[in-house]
Each structure stands twice: as C-alpha cells, then as structure tokens.
Amino acid sequence: MFNPAKIRRIAVNTGGGDAPGLNAVIRAVTLAALERGWEVWGSRHGYRGLLDLTQLVPLTASEVRGITHLGGSILGTANKSDPFEYPTKTPEGAKLVDVSDQIVRNFRARELDALICIGGDGSLRIAHKFVEKGIPVVGVPKTIDNDLSGTVVTFGFDTAVTTATEAIDKLHSTAEAHERVMVVEVMGRYAGWIALNSGLSGTADIILIPEIPFDLAKVCEAVMQREAAGKHFAIVVAAEGARPAGGQMMTRGPKEAGREVLLGGIGQHIAGEIARLTGKETRHLVLGHLQRGGGPTTFDRLLGLRFGAAAVRALAEGKVNVMIALDPPTVKTIPLSQAIERMKAVPLDCDSILTARSLGVCLGD
Q1: Would you say domain 4-155+296-328 falls under CATH 3.30.2000.10?
Q2: Residue 277 pLDDT > 80, yes or no?
Q3: Given 145, 147, 158, 205, which residue is catalytic?
Q4: Do 52 and 159 contact (CB within 8 A), yes or no?
Q5: Is the whole model's pTM more than 0.90, yes or no?
C-alpha cells in the first residue's frame, strides 16, 4: 500500500519525442516537491538514469530556474530506449534485452518512493509495465500529436499547431505569386490533429489526415476546381501518416531496433502525383522537427506548470498509477491503464471536421 506520508525522494523522467513545455513540467514538479520537503532526482534520457546511476541527477531550485520558456528538456529524452527491449551490444551483435529488473533494483537501492513519468503513449505504456513491477507512477501526458485519450489536450500540441500554422500562412503568398500547389507535410503518425487544426487555421484548401484515407482523384479535382474559379494556387496540408485509400503509410528506411518505424514521404508523393495528374507546378515542404522545437506557447507553458504541480499533489494525496488529465476547467487524475487503452484519433463527426466540410475544404474523400 502506497503511503504518501513516507515520501522522501521522487524521480522524474522525460521519454519519447520531445515537446515544447517539458521544462515547464520539470520545473513545476521540482518546486512543488521541494515545497513539501521531498528530494527530486532527474533520470536523464528517459530511463537511462535509472539504469546507469551516474545519469541520475539531483534537481534543485537553482537547476530549474528560468527554464519555463525553454524548448527541449534539461533531462534529455529518448525514443529508442525501452527498458523492456533495450538495444544492447553483445558479442553476437546488437540485441534487444530486458533490463527492467535492473531499473527496479536501482529504483529501490536509491530509496526512491515514486516516479513521475512525462511522456506520450509509448512512454506511458512502459511506465504502466513498471507499475506492474511495483513502482508507484504518476504519468504526465506529453505529445505534440495530441493522441492520448483521457485528456482534452496534451502539452506541446498547441505550440506544434502554432508553428505549423505560421508556416502555412507564409506559403500563401509564394504559392499565389508562382501559381503553384504547395503541399505541406506535418507530423501526425496515426492521428491528424496537427494537420486538421493547422490546416483549418491556415486556410488550407485540402487537408489529409490518417483517419480519412484519401482519393488522389478527389484531391486533384479540388485543385482544378480552384483553377477553374480563377484561383491558380492551392495549399495542401498532409499528416505524415496520411495514406491513400487501399494503401499504406509511407515509411523512411527499415525499422530501427527499439523504436517505431519512421514515417515520411507522403508530402513528396502527393506533390508528384498532383503535378502529374493536373499539370500544375507543385512543390512540397516537410516541417518535421520544427514542430517540436522552440519555446512553448503561453498555453503550453501554463498547461505544463499545471500538470507538473498536479502530479506532485496527486502523490501527496496518495494517488499513484494514474495520469494527469485536463478536463476544463480543472486538472484531474485518471487511471494510467485507462489512459493507454486506446489512441485518441480525430472523430469523423467532430466539430472541426464538420467545420472543414462546411467551409468547402477537401478532405480527400
């Protein structure tokens, strides 16, 4: 039984792809825990600090001073260091080895009382496995893709959408000047939240998301309808996980050990097909990690601070094996198992989809 009165020392880590707002969460966790008289230790690069204890570092008020507005993570992060399938060099070559028991031993040897895990779907699934091994966990939802169920929004999403929208805004003038079709590929592996929100906000003409397999004929028809109406340019926004009807997501190279397959290339493919089928001059742009970089927006800074402070409050109240979630106007906790049971895809009847259709935006179907 977890006893919050006995908490003396906690750990915090950041895993998976980075997202603007991570440092705000780290700062809030550290200061809120120090206010309660707890020690705070940061595990560098995901779980590496709990595997190699030289990478487990103390966090003090001075260590987190002035970091709320910074992008990245002062603890670093990792998206190919799953402790249950840890890439390890052996005499026989690289292998995936389960090192989770060593992490549990180190956690207990350092007399840590709980772990605050800041991460997305993959990181929180790993955290849940450690729950099953006896480590008390509080998860904090982080992903620019906004695909974690149980919370209205994840921190990092607003910044990513803002970055993508600003890029789309800038493309309008050059697309119109050269009478080109511009295809913008944004992040969004299995969920089209970034593409949909930035595409609508940036007044894109065509938005392609993973939830709606697209028909290239419909896409080209939308381009030519604009041409016939005297609008000789078009803006297409495509999530990296968008795929043609009956087709597959496009990938870049073979799958690396211990990480998900890399997606990419759909923007270039769509641009090439539009040029071939319509004769229109077409260009493509991949925003890539620009969406992860830079300082967080005001919304993400505040959300990160709220989530971090709420994670410490949850521990103090004896709530473990939960995830912090935004349920406007409040922040609450939900069971960690519930948070990872399904991915939050874009509902096809949601207001943003209905808005896009009402505005005449082509969704590829």
Answers
A1: no
A2: yes
A3: 145
A4: no
A5: yes
